[in-house]
Amino acid sequence: MALQDLCGFKDSFLNSRWNFPASHRMAQEDTSMLFGKRTRDISSRGLSWSNSESPLHLYIPAAEYLSESPIQFGQINPNTAPYHITPLHQDSTLPFLSFPPGFPPSSSPSVPLPFPMSHGTTTLAFMFQGGVIAAADTRSSCNGLVACPASQKILPVHSHLVGTTSGTSADCALWKRILARELRLYQLRHGRRLSTAGAAKLLAHMLHPFKGTELCVAATLCGWDGGEVETCPLDRLYYVCSDGTRLQGALFSVGSGSPYAYSVLDGGVRWGLTVEEAISLAREAVYRATHRDAYSGNCVDVYHITSHGWTRRDREELREERLWRKVGQNLVLNLHLSCFL
Amino acid sequence: TMFATQVYGDNGKMKEYHYTGPVEHRFSPYSFNGGTVLAVAGEDFAIVASDTRLSEGYSIHSRDSPKCYKLTDTTVIGCSGFHGDCLTLTKIIDARLKMYKHSNNKCMTSGAIAAMLSTILYGRRFFPYYVYNIIGGLDEEGKGAVYSFDPVGSYQRDTYKAGGSASAMLQPLLDNQIGFKNMEGVQHLPLNQEKAVQLVKDVFISAAERDVYTGDALRICIVTKDGIKEETVPLRKD
After folding, report:
1. Signal sequence span per UniProt (chain B) (predicted)?
2. Between residues 88 and 127 of chain B, which touch chain A (CB distance below 8 Å)?
3. ipTM over 0.95
4. What is the pLDDT of residue A116?
Protein backbone atom coordinates (compact mmCIF):
# COMPACT_ATOMS: atom_id res chain seq x y z
CA MET A 1 0.00 0.00 0.00
CA ALA A 2 2.99 2.31 -0.23
CA LEU A 3 1.78 3.94 -3.43
CA GLN A 4 -1.60 4.62 -1.94
CA ASP A 5 -0.14 6.12 1.19
CA LEU A 6 2.03 8.41 -0.88
CA CYS A 7 -0.96 9.74 -2.71
CA GLY A 8 -3.09 10.04 0.36
CA PHE A 9 -5.38 7.85 -1.67
CA LYS A 10 -7.60 5.71 0.44
CA ASP A 11 -9.98 3.34 -1.13
CA SER A 12 -13.02 4.11 0.93
CA PHE A 13 -14.17 0.53 1.07
CA LEU A 14 -10.91 -0.81 2.47
CA ASN A 15 -10.52 2.19 4.63
CA SER A 16 -13.70 2.09 6.61
CA ARG A 17 -14.03 -1.62 7.09
CA TRP A 18 -10.57 -2.60 8.18
CA ASN A 19 -8.52 0.46 8.89
CA PHE A 20 -11.01 2.45 10.87
CA PRO A 21 -13.17 -0.05 12.66
CA ALA A 22 -14.53 2.02 15.46
CA SER A 23 -13.76 5.66 15.47
CA HIS A 24 -11.57 8.00 13.54
CA ARG A 25 -10.19 10.52 15.92
CA MET A 26 -9.15 13.88 14.63
CA ALA A 27 -5.68 14.80 15.75
CA GLN A 28 -4.57 18.32 16.35
CA GLU A 29 -2.95 18.55 12.99
CA ASP A 30 -5.51 16.34 11.46
CA THR A 31 -5.21 16.11 7.80
CA SER A 32 -7.57 13.85 5.96
CA MET A 33 -11.10 14.22 7.07
CA LEU A 34 -13.56 11.64 5.97
CA PHE A 35 -16.76 13.24 5.04
CA GLY A 36 -19.56 10.98 6.08
CA LYS A 37 -22.99 11.51 4.72
CA ARG A 38 -25.60 11.39 7.38
CA THR A 39 -24.87 8.86 10.00
CA ARG A 40 -22.07 10.55 11.86
CA ASP A 41 -22.40 10.94 15.56
CA ILE A 42 -20.06 12.89 17.73
CA SER A 43 -18.81 10.51 20.34
CA SER A 44 -17.26 11.67 23.54
CA ARG A 45 -13.72 11.18 22.29
CA GLY A 46 -14.10 12.82 18.96
CA LEU A 47 -15.73 11.88 15.77
CA SER A 48 -16.76 8.54 14.47
CA TRP A 49 -17.76 8.15 10.91
CA SER A 50 -19.70 4.98 10.69
CA ASN A 51 -20.94 5.48 7.18
CA SER A 52 -18.33 4.28 4.76
CA GLU A 53 -19.61 6.21 1.79
CA SER A 54 -17.43 9.26 1.79
CA PRO A 55 -17.92 11.39 -1.29
CA LEU A 56 -14.74 13.30 -0.71
CA HIS A 57 -11.52 13.17 1.24
CA LEU A 58 -10.39 16.63 2.10
CA TYR A 59 -7.09 17.77 3.49
CA ILE A 60 -7.66 20.44 6.10
CA PRO A 61 -4.50 22.11 7.31
CA ALA A 62 -4.49 23.07 10.93
CA ALA A 63 -3.48 26.61 11.63
CA GLU A 64 -0.79 25.79 14.13
CA TYR A 65 1.76 24.16 11.91
CA LEU A 66 1.68 26.90 9.34
CA SER A 67 2.72 29.48 11.88
CA GLU A 68 5.74 27.42 12.89
CA SER A 69 9.07 28.89 12.00
CA PRO A 70 10.78 27.25 9.02
CA ILE A 71 13.34 25.59 11.28
CA GLN A 72 10.78 23.21 12.70
CA PHE A 73 8.78 22.94 9.54
CA GLY A 74 8.79 19.44 8.17
CA GLN A 75 10.47 17.67 11.05
CA ILE A 76 8.72 14.50 12.01
CA ASN A 77 7.40 15.34 15.39
CA PRO A 78 3.95 14.14 16.28
CA ASN A 79 2.94 17.53 17.49
CA THR A 80 4.26 19.48 14.57
CA ALA A 81 4.25 17.09 11.61
CA PRO A 82 2.40 18.70 8.75
CA TYR A 83 0.80 15.47 7.68
CA HIS A 84 1.15 11.90 8.68
CA ILE A 85 1.17 9.16 6.21
CA THR A 86 -0.33 6.42 8.34
CA PRO A 87 -3.05 7.82 10.49
CA LEU A 88 -3.43 4.49 12.23
CA HIS A 89 -0.75 5.00 14.80
CA GLN A 90 -1.82 8.31 16.18
CA ASP A 91 -3.72 7.00 19.18
CA SER A 92 -2.47 8.06 22.56
CA THR A 93 0.59 10.09 21.64
CA LEU A 94 -1.24 12.77 19.78
CA PRO A 95 -3.64 15.17 21.35
CA PHE A 96 -6.79 15.38 19.36
CA LEU A 97 -9.02 18.18 18.56
CA SER A 98 -12.60 17.86 19.56
CA PHE A 99 -14.89 18.88 16.80
CA PRO A 100 -15.69 21.69 16.03
CA PRO A 101 -13.51 24.25 17.91
CA GLY A 102 -10.37 23.84 15.83
CA PHE A 103 -12.16 23.11 12.64
CA PRO A 104 -12.55 24.69 10.21
CA PRO A 105 -9.52 26.96 10.44
CA SER A 106 -11.34 29.69 8.67
CA SER A 107 -10.58 32.68 10.81
CA SER A 108 -6.85 32.02 10.89
CA PRO A 109 -4.97 33.94 8.25
CA SER A 110 -2.25 31.30 7.94
CA VAL A 111 -3.22 29.99 4.53
CA PRO A 112 -4.06 33.11 2.57
CA LEU A 113 -7.65 33.14 1.50
CA PRO A 114 -8.54 33.61 -2.10
CA PHE A 115 -9.30 37.00 -3.46
CA PRO A 116 -12.47 38.14 -1.66
CA MET A 117 -14.73 38.70 -4.63
CA SER A 118 -18.45 38.78 -4.81
CA HIS A 119 -19.95 36.16 -7.07
CA GLY A 120 -18.89 37.59 -10.41
CA THR A 121 -21.63 36.40 -12.63
CA THR A 122 -25.28 36.79 -13.51
CA THR A 123 -27.57 33.82 -13.13
CA LEU A 124 -31.29 33.85 -12.76
CA ALA A 125 -34.20 31.45 -12.53
CA PHE A 126 -37.95 31.92 -12.31
CA MET A 127 -41.02 29.79 -12.59
CA PHE A 128 -44.19 30.33 -14.51
CA GLN A 129 -47.09 28.34 -15.85
CA GLY A 130 -44.98 26.58 -18.46
CA GLY A 131 -42.25 25.32 -16.16
CA VAL A 132 -39.03 26.89 -14.95
CA ILE A 133 -36.58 29.03 -16.89
CA ALA A 134 -32.92 29.21 -15.90
CA ALA A 135 -30.50 31.58 -17.60
CA ALA A 136 -26.89 32.60 -17.05
CA ASP A 137 -24.02 34.40 -18.72
CA THR A 138 -20.83 32.53 -19.64
CA ARG A 139 -17.94 34.62 -18.38
CA SER A 140 -15.56 33.17 -15.80
CA SER A 141 -13.34 35.84 -14.35
CA CYS A 142 -10.28 35.55 -12.17
CA ASN A 143 -8.95 38.61 -10.46
CA GLY A 144 -9.70 40.93 -13.35
CA LEU A 145 -8.77 38.53 -16.12
CA VAL A 146 -11.38 36.63 -18.07
CA ALA A 147 -10.23 33.10 -17.46
CA CYS A 148 -12.85 31.59 -19.71
CA PRO A 149 -15.30 33.37 -21.99
CA ALA A 150 -17.28 30.22 -22.69
CA SER A 151 -17.88 28.47 -19.42
CA GLN A 152 -21.04 26.64 -18.52
CA LYS A 153 -22.75 27.94 -15.44
CA ILE A 154 -25.94 25.94 -15.70
CA LEU A 155 -25.19 22.32 -15.02
CA PRO A 156 -27.78 19.60 -15.44
CA VAL A 157 -27.94 17.35 -12.40
CA HIS A 158 -30.33 14.83 -13.89
CA SER A 159 -33.01 14.75 -16.53
CA HIS A 160 -35.43 16.83 -14.47
CA LEU A 161 -33.13 18.94 -12.35
CA VAL A 162 -30.83 21.72 -13.37
CA GLY A 163 -28.68 23.90 -11.15
CA THR A 164 -27.27 27.34 -11.85
CA THR A 165 -23.89 27.93 -10.28
CA SER A 166 -22.24 30.99 -8.91
CA GLY A 167 -19.21 31.40 -6.70
CA THR A 168 -15.99 29.47 -7.19
CA SER A 169 -16.06 27.33 -10.35
CA ALA A 170 -14.26 24.38 -8.83
CA ASP A 171 -16.55 24.26 -5.81
CA CYS A 172 -19.68 24.47 -7.92
CA ALA A 173 -18.56 21.85 -10.41
CA LEU A 174 -17.54 19.40 -7.75
CA TRP A 175 -20.54 19.79 -5.46
CA LYS A 176 -22.87 19.42 -8.42
CA ARG A 177 -21.14 16.16 -9.26
CA ILE A 178 -21.49 14.99 -5.68
CA LEU A 179 -25.14 16.01 -5.63
CA ALA A 180 -25.80 14.14 -8.88
CA ARG A 181 -24.19 11.05 -7.45
CA GLU A 182 -26.18 11.20 -4.21
CA LEU A 183 -29.45 11.75 -6.06
CA ARG A 184 -28.75 8.78 -8.27
CA LEU A 185 -28.01 6.62 -5.22
CA TYR A 186 -31.27 7.78 -3.66
CA GLN A 187 -33.15 6.88 -6.81
CA LEU A 188 -31.63 3.43 -6.89
CA ARG A 189 -32.31 2.77 -3.24
CA HIS A 190 -35.83 4.11 -3.01
CA GLY A 191 -37.13 3.63 -6.50
CA ARG A 192 -38.18 7.22 -7.04
CA ARG A 193 -36.52 10.52 -7.78
CA LEU A 194 -35.77 12.84 -4.93
CA SER A 195 -37.86 16.01 -5.08
CA THR A 196 -36.32 19.41 -5.71
CA ALA A 197 -36.94 20.33 -2.10
CA GLY A 198 -35.18 17.20 -0.97
CA ALA A 199 -32.25 17.84 -3.29
CA ALA A 200 -31.95 21.37 -1.94
CA LYS A 201 -32.00 20.12 1.62
CA LEU A 202 -29.39 17.50 0.81
CA LEU A 203 -27.08 20.02 -0.82
CA ALA A 204 -27.49 22.47 2.05
CA HIS A 205 -26.66 19.80 4.61
CA MET A 206 -23.65 18.61 2.61
CA LEU A 207 -22.28 22.11 2.52
CA HIS A 208 -22.97 22.86 6.15
CA PRO A 209 -19.69 21.47 7.58
CA PHE A 210 -17.83 23.93 5.38
CA LYS A 211 -19.63 26.96 6.65
CA GLY A 212 -17.09 29.62 7.50
CA THR A 213 -14.43 28.26 5.15
CA GLU A 214 -13.57 29.67 1.79
CA LEU A 215 -15.96 27.40 0.00
CA CYS A 216 -18.32 29.51 -2.03
CA VAL A 217 -21.30 27.96 -3.76
CA ALA A 218 -24.53 29.81 -4.53
CA ALA A 219 -26.81 27.65 -6.60
CA THR A 220 -30.43 27.74 -7.61
CA LEU A 221 -31.91 24.31 -8.15
CA CYS A 222 -34.68 24.20 -10.73
CA GLY A 223 -36.59 21.02 -11.17
CA TRP A 224 -39.84 19.33 -11.88
CA ASP A 225 -41.14 16.74 -9.46
CA GLY A 226 -43.59 14.04 -10.26
CA GLY A 227 -45.12 13.21 -13.62
CA GLU A 228 -47.37 15.16 -15.93
CA VAL A 229 -49.46 16.47 -13.07
CA GLU A 230 -47.37 17.98 -10.37
CA THR A 231 -47.90 17.08 -6.77
CA CYS A 232 -46.93 20.54 -5.60
CA PRO A 233 -46.78 23.18 -8.32
CA LEU A 234 -45.06 25.76 -6.19
CA ASP A 235 -42.14 23.61 -5.24
CA ARG A 236 -39.82 23.85 -8.22
CA LEU A 237 -37.20 26.44 -7.41
CA TYR A 238 -34.77 26.59 -4.51
CA TYR A 239 -31.81 28.78 -3.73
CA VAL A 240 -28.99 27.11 -1.79
CA CYS A 241 -25.91 28.91 -0.60
CA SER A 242 -22.78 27.68 1.14
CA ASP A 243 -23.36 30.07 4.04
CA GLY A 244 -26.36 27.94 4.95
CA THR A 245 -29.23 29.68 3.19
CA ARG A 246 -31.90 27.51 1.68
CA LEU A 247 -34.91 29.33 0.30
CA GLN A 248 -37.87 28.38 -1.78
CA GLY A 249 -39.15 31.02 -4.13
CA ALA A 250 -40.58 31.93 -7.48
CA LEU A 251 -37.80 34.14 -8.76
CA PHE A 252 -34.10 34.26 -7.96
CA SER A 253 -31.12 36.02 -9.40
CA VAL A 254 -27.62 35.44 -8.09
CA GLY A 255 -24.34 37.18 -8.68
CA SER A 256 -22.78 40.56 -9.18
CA GLY A 257 -25.13 41.29 -12.08
CA SER A 258 -28.23 40.30 -10.14
CA PRO A 259 -29.45 43.84 -9.27
CA TYR A 260 -29.70 44.63 -12.96
CA ALA A 261 -31.36 41.33 -13.72
CA TYR A 262 -33.83 41.75 -10.85
CA SER A 263 -34.98 45.11 -12.17
CA VAL A 264 -35.80 43.64 -15.56
CA LEU A 265 -37.39 40.52 -14.13
CA ASP A 266 -39.53 42.31 -11.54
CA GLY A 267 -40.97 44.36 -14.35
CA GLY A 268 -41.92 41.41 -16.50
CA VAL A 269 -42.39 38.13 -14.67
CA ARG A 270 -45.98 36.97 -14.33
CA TRP A 271 -47.37 33.49 -13.83
CA GLY A 272 -49.21 33.62 -17.14
CA LEU A 273 -46.24 34.17 -19.45
CA THR A 274 -45.96 32.07 -22.58
CA VAL A 275 -42.80 30.07 -23.13
CA GLU A 276 -41.44 32.42 -25.83
CA GLU A 277 -42.10 35.47 -23.69
CA ALA A 278 -40.43 33.89 -20.70
CA ILE A 279 -37.34 32.93 -22.69
CA SER A 280 -36.99 36.35 -24.23
CA LEU A 281 -37.45 37.96 -20.82
CA ALA A 282 -34.69 35.83 -19.35
CA ARG A 283 -32.36 36.70 -22.24
CA GLU A 284 -33.16 40.37 -21.88
CA ALA A 285 -32.40 40.30 -18.16
CA VAL A 286 -29.01 38.65 -18.69
CA TYR A 287 -28.24 40.99 -21.58
CA ARG A 288 -28.94 44.07 -19.47
CA ALA A 289 -26.84 42.71 -16.63
CA THR A 290 -23.90 41.94 -18.91
CA HIS A 291 -24.14 45.44 -20.31
CA ARG A 292 -23.70 47.07 -16.92
CA ASP A 293 -21.74 44.56 -14.89
CA ALA A 294 -18.06 44.15 -15.66
CA TYR A 295 -17.89 40.60 -14.37
CA SER A 296 -20.69 39.32 -16.58
CA GLY A 297 -20.54 39.02 -20.29
CA ASN A 298 -19.95 37.03 -23.41
CA CYS A 299 -22.85 34.67 -24.16
CA VAL A 300 -26.11 33.66 -22.54
CA ASP A 301 -27.37 30.14 -21.85
CA VAL A 302 -31.08 29.48 -21.37
CA TYR A 303 -32.56 26.26 -20.07
CA HIS A 304 -36.26 25.43 -19.87
CA ILE A 305 -37.51 22.72 -17.50
CA THR A 306 -40.89 21.08 -18.02
CA SER A 307 -42.49 17.78 -17.14
CA HIS A 308 -40.55 16.17 -19.97
CA GLY A 309 -37.20 17.28 -18.62
CA TRP A 310 -34.90 20.14 -19.47
CA THR A 311 -34.22 21.59 -22.91
CA ARG A 312 -31.44 23.93 -23.77
CA ARG A 313 -31.45 26.83 -26.13
CA ASP A 314 -28.38 27.32 -28.24
CA ARG A 315 -25.84 29.59 -26.75
CA GLU A 316 -26.11 33.08 -28.13
CA GLU A 317 -23.34 35.54 -28.61
CA LEU A 318 -24.46 38.84 -27.18
CA ARG A 319 -22.08 40.98 -29.16
CA GLU A 320 -24.05 40.60 -32.35
CA GLU A 321 -27.17 41.41 -30.37
CA ARG A 322 -25.59 44.58 -29.14
CA LEU A 323 -24.56 45.64 -32.63
CA TRP A 324 -28.01 44.85 -33.96
CA ARG A 325 -29.65 46.91 -31.26
CA LYS A 326 -27.34 49.81 -31.92
CA VAL A 327 -28.24 49.69 -35.59
CA GLY A 328 -31.89 49.56 -34.58
CA GLN A 329 -31.42 52.51 -32.26
CA ASN A 330 -29.76 54.54 -34.97
CA LEU A 331 -32.60 53.78 -37.34
CA VAL A 332 -35.14 54.90 -34.78
CA LEU A 333 -33.19 58.08 -34.06
CA ASN A 334 -32.97 58.86 -37.74
CA LEU A 335 -36.69 58.34 -38.10
CA HIS A 336 -37.40 60.69 -35.24
CA LEU A 337 -35.11 63.31 -36.66
CA SER A 338 -36.67 63.05 -40.05
CA CYS A 339 -40.08 63.56 -38.47
CA PHE A 340 -39.02 66.76 -36.83
CA LEU A 341 -37.29 68.29 -39.78
CA THR B 1 -18.11 32.18 -11.47
CA MET B 2 -14.61 32.71 -10.30
CA PHE B 3 -11.56 30.54 -10.77
CA ALA B 4 -9.25 30.39 -7.79
CA THR B 5 -6.76 33.14 -8.21
CA GLN B 6 -3.12 33.86 -8.05
CA VAL B 7 -3.26 35.56 -4.69
CA TYR B 8 -1.13 32.86 -3.11
CA GLY B 9 1.76 33.64 -5.33
CA ASP B 10 2.79 37.10 -4.42
CA ASN B 11 5.76 35.77 -2.54
CA GLY B 12 8.69 35.23 -4.80
CA LYS B 13 7.72 37.98 -7.18
CA MET B 14 9.56 41.23 -6.85
CA LYS B 15 8.73 43.01 -3.63
CA GLU B 16 8.17 46.69 -2.94
CA TYR B 17 11.29 48.67 -3.61
CA HIS B 18 10.75 51.47 -1.14
CA TYR B 19 10.40 51.13 2.58
CA THR B 20 6.74 51.58 3.41
CA GLY B 21 6.82 51.06 7.15
CA PRO B 22 7.21 48.03 9.43
CA VAL B 23 5.79 44.87 7.96
CA GLU B 24 5.13 41.63 9.75
CA HIS B 25 6.42 38.69 7.77
CA ARG B 26 4.82 35.35 8.11
CA PHE B 27 6.26 32.13 6.83
CA SER B 28 4.54 31.30 3.61
CA PRO B 29 4.46 27.75 2.38
CA TYR B 30 4.19 28.97 -1.21
CA SER B 31 6.61 30.56 -3.61
CA PHE B 32 6.26 31.57 -7.21
CA ASN B 33 8.73 30.00 -9.63
CA GLY B 34 7.51 31.46 -12.88
CA GLY B 35 7.21 29.80 -16.23
CA THR B 36 4.66 29.67 -18.99
CA VAL B 37 2.88 26.68 -20.46
CA LEU B 38 0.87 26.48 -23.65
CA ALA B 39 -1.19 23.74 -25.28
CA VAL B 40 -2.89 23.55 -28.66
CA ALA B 41 -5.14 20.78 -29.97
CA GLY B 42 -5.35 19.98 -33.65
CA GLU B 43 -7.31 17.54 -35.72
CA ASP B 44 -5.02 14.59 -35.01
CA PHE B 45 -2.25 16.07 -32.90
CA ALA B 46 -1.71 18.04 -29.73
CA ILE B 47 1.16 20.32 -28.79
CA VAL B 48 2.28 21.12 -25.26
CA ALA B 49 5.04 23.69 -24.94
CA SER B 50 6.74 25.35 -22.01
CA ASP B 51 9.70 27.53 -21.34
CA THR B 52 12.53 26.14 -19.22
CA ARG B 53 13.35 28.96 -16.82
CA LEU B 54 13.04 28.39 -13.07
CA SER B 55 13.11 31.67 -11.20
CA GLU B 56 12.33 33.01 -7.76
CA GLY B 57 12.08 36.70 -7.05
CA TYR B 58 15.07 38.34 -8.72
CA SER B 59 17.09 35.15 -9.25
CA ILE B 60 17.11 32.46 -11.86
CA HIS B 61 17.64 29.07 -10.29
CA SER B 62 17.91 27.11 -13.50
CA ARG B 63 17.77 27.61 -17.22
CA ASP B 64 16.97 23.99 -17.94
CA SER B 65 13.86 23.10 -16.01
CA PRO B 66 11.13 22.25 -18.50
CA LYS B 67 7.59 22.20 -17.30
CA CYS B 68 6.14 19.54 -19.61
CA TYR B 69 5.92 16.05 -18.15
CA LYS B 70 5.07 12.97 -20.13
CA LEU B 71 2.32 10.95 -18.48
CA THR B 72 1.36 8.28 -21.03
CA ASP B 73 2.08 7.71 -24.71
CA THR B 74 -0.82 9.94 -25.59
CA THR B 75 -0.79 12.57 -22.84
CA VAL B 76 1.54 15.31 -21.70
CA ILE B 77 0.93 17.67 -18.81
CA GLY B 78 2.36 21.15 -18.36
CA CYS B 79 2.57 22.50 -14.80
CA SER B 80 3.67 25.99 -13.84
CA GLY B 81 3.52 27.92 -10.61
CA PHE B 82 5.22 26.69 -7.48
CA HIS B 83 7.86 24.16 -8.47
CA GLY B 84 7.62 22.15 -5.25
CA ASP B 85 3.94 21.52 -5.79
CA CYS B 86 4.54 20.76 -9.49
CA LEU B 87 6.99 18.00 -8.57
CA THR B 88 4.75 16.46 -5.93
CA LEU B 89 1.70 16.66 -8.14
CA THR B 90 3.41 14.92 -11.05
CA LYS B 91 4.67 12.20 -8.71
CA ILE B 92 1.17 11.66 -7.41
CA ILE B 93 -0.27 11.55 -10.91
CA ASP B 94 2.37 9.02 -12.00
CA ALA B 95 1.58 6.86 -9.01
CA ARG B 96 -2.15 6.99 -9.68
CA LEU B 97 -1.56 6.13 -13.33
CA LYS B 98 0.38 3.06 -12.31
CA MET B 99 -2.32 2.01 -9.88
CA TYR B 100 -4.97 2.37 -12.56
CA LYS B 101 -2.87 0.37 -15.00
CA HIS B 102 -2.37 -2.41 -12.50
CA SER B 103 -5.99 -2.68 -11.48
CA ASN B 104 -7.69 -2.07 -14.83
CA ASN B 105 -5.06 -3.46 -17.22
CA LYS B 106 -5.21 -0.47 -19.52
CA CYS B 107 -3.74 3.00 -19.69
CA MET B 108 -5.74 6.00 -18.59
CA THR B 109 -7.21 8.09 -21.37
CA SER B 110 -6.70 11.86 -21.50
CA GLY B 111 -10.23 12.57 -20.37
CA ALA B 112 -9.88 10.20 -17.44
CA ILE B 113 -6.59 11.78 -16.39
CA ALA B 114 -8.23 15.18 -16.50
CA ALA B 115 -11.13 14.09 -14.32
CA MET B 116 -8.75 12.43 -11.87
CA LEU B 117 -6.56 15.50 -11.66
CA SER B 118 -9.61 17.59 -10.89
CA THR B 119 -10.42 15.48 -7.84
CA ILE B 120 -6.77 15.37 -6.73
CA LEU B 121 -6.61 19.15 -6.83
CA TYR B 122 -9.93 19.59 -5.08
CA GLY B 123 -8.85 17.22 -2.33
CA ARG B 124 -6.56 20.04 -1.29
CA ARG B 125 -9.22 22.71 -1.51
CA PHE B 126 -8.17 24.29 1.77
CA PHE B 127 -4.44 24.20 1.19
CA PRO B 128 -4.21 24.11 -2.58
CA TYR B 129 -1.47 22.96 -4.87
CA TYR B 130 -0.25 26.22 -6.32
CA VAL B 131 0.02 24.86 -9.83
CA TYR B 132 -1.59 25.90 -13.08
CA ASN B 133 -2.03 22.74 -15.11
CA ILE B 134 -2.74 22.15 -18.75
CA ILE B 135 -3.09 18.66 -20.15
CA GLY B 136 -2.59 18.04 -23.85
CA GLY B 137 -3.12 14.75 -25.60
CA LEU B 138 -5.23 12.63 -27.86
CA ASP B 139 -8.69 11.47 -26.90
CA GLU B 140 -10.11 7.99 -27.57
CA GLU B 141 -10.96 8.91 -31.15
CA GLY B 142 -7.47 10.15 -31.88
CA LYS B 143 -8.40 13.83 -31.98
CA GLY B 144 -6.36 16.41 -30.15
CA ALA B 145 -7.62 17.43 -26.71
CA VAL B 146 -6.54 20.14 -24.31
CA TYR B 147 -7.81 20.35 -20.73
CA SER B 148 -7.04 23.43 -18.66
CA PHE B 149 -7.25 23.63 -14.88
CA ASP B 150 -7.22 26.20 -12.15
CA PRO B 151 -5.35 25.53 -8.88
CA VAL B 152 -8.36 24.02 -7.14
CA GLY B 153 -9.52 21.67 -9.83
CA SER B 154 -12.05 23.42 -12.00
CA TYR B 155 -11.44 22.25 -15.56
CA GLN B 156 -12.80 22.16 -19.05
CA ARG B 157 -11.83 21.01 -22.47
CA ASP B 158 -10.48 23.63 -24.85
CA THR B 159 -8.86 23.90 -28.24
CA TYR B 160 -5.98 26.02 -26.98
CA LYS B 161 -4.91 27.49 -23.66
CA ALA B 162 -2.00 29.36 -22.15
CA GLY B 163 -1.17 29.16 -18.46
CA GLY B 164 1.48 30.52 -16.15
CA SER B 165 3.11 33.91 -15.79
CA ALA B 166 2.69 35.11 -19.39
CA SER B 167 -0.76 33.62 -19.87
CA ALA B 168 -2.52 36.99 -19.90
CA MET B 169 -0.32 38.08 -22.80
CA LEU B 170 -0.53 34.88 -24.79
CA GLN B 171 -4.19 33.99 -24.49
CA PRO B 172 -5.51 36.96 -26.51
CA LEU B 173 -2.96 36.23 -29.21
CA LEU B 174 -4.10 32.62 -29.39
CA ASP B 175 -7.76 33.72 -29.45
CA ASN B 176 -6.95 35.79 -32.46
CA GLN B 177 -4.68 33.43 -34.39
CA ILE B 178 -6.22 30.06 -33.63
CA GLY B 179 -9.76 30.97 -32.70
CA PHE B 180 -10.02 33.70 -35.37
CA LYS B 181 -11.84 35.84 -32.86
CA ASN B 182 -12.31 39.54 -33.29
CA MET B 183 -11.31 39.43 -36.93
CA GLU B 184 -13.58 40.49 -39.74
CA GLY B 185 -13.85 38.67 -43.01
CA VAL B 186 -11.25 35.98 -42.37
CA GLN B 187 -11.42 32.41 -43.53
CA HIS B 188 -11.43 29.90 -40.70
CA LEU B 189 -8.69 27.56 -41.85
CA PRO B 190 -8.04 24.48 -39.74
CA LEU B 191 -4.63 24.39 -38.14
CA ASN B 192 -2.09 21.91 -39.48
CA GLN B 193 0.84 20.66 -37.48
CA GLU B 194 3.64 22.69 -39.08
CA LYS B 195 1.74 25.94 -38.78
CA ALA B 196 0.82 25.19 -35.19
CA VAL B 197 4.43 24.50 -34.21
CA GLN B 198 5.62 27.67 -35.91
CA LEU B 199 2.88 29.66 -34.18
CA VAL B 200 3.89 28.27 -30.80
CA LYS B 201 7.51 29.25 -31.39
CA ASP B 202 6.55 32.78 -32.43
CA VAL B 203 4.23 33.16 -29.48
CA PHE B 204 6.88 32.14 -26.97
CA ILE B 205 9.46 34.45 -28.50
CA SER B 206 6.98 37.28 -27.95
CA ALA B 207 6.33 36.16 -24.39
CA ALA B 208 10.04 36.04 -23.60
CA GLU B 209 10.37 39.61 -24.81
CA ARG B 210 7.76 40.95 -22.45
CA ASP B 211 7.64 38.68 -19.42
CA VAL B 212 10.64 38.50 -17.13
CA TYR B 213 9.82 35.03 -15.85
CA THR B 214 9.72 33.48 -19.32
CA GLY B 215 12.79 32.75 -21.38
CA ASP B 216 15.99 30.68 -21.72
CA ALA B 217 14.64 27.89 -23.89
CA LEU B 218 11.41 26.48 -25.22
CA ARG B 219 10.53 22.81 -24.98
CA ILE B 220 7.82 21.61 -27.38
CA CYS B 221 6.19 18.18 -27.08
CA ILE B 222 4.16 17.12 -30.10
CA VAL B 223 1.72 14.28 -29.41
CA THR B 224 0.51 12.24 -32.36
CA LYS B 225 -0.61 8.68 -32.79
CA ASP B 226 2.99 7.78 -33.53
CA GLY B 227 4.14 8.92 -30.11
CA ILE B 228 5.58 12.01 -28.51
CA LYS B 229 8.26 14.07 -30.24
CA GLU B 230 10.28 16.67 -28.35
CA GLU B 231 11.95 19.77 -29.74
CA THR B 232 14.03 22.40 -27.97
CA VAL B 233 14.34 25.96 -29.26
CA PRO B 234 16.52 28.62 -27.62
CA LEU B 235 14.91 31.83 -26.31
CA ARG B 236 16.24 35.04 -24.83
CA LYS B 237 18.45 34.40 -21.84
CA ASP B 238 18.30 37.86 -20.29
Report:
1. none
2. 91-92, 95-96, 98-99, 118-127
3. no
4. 38
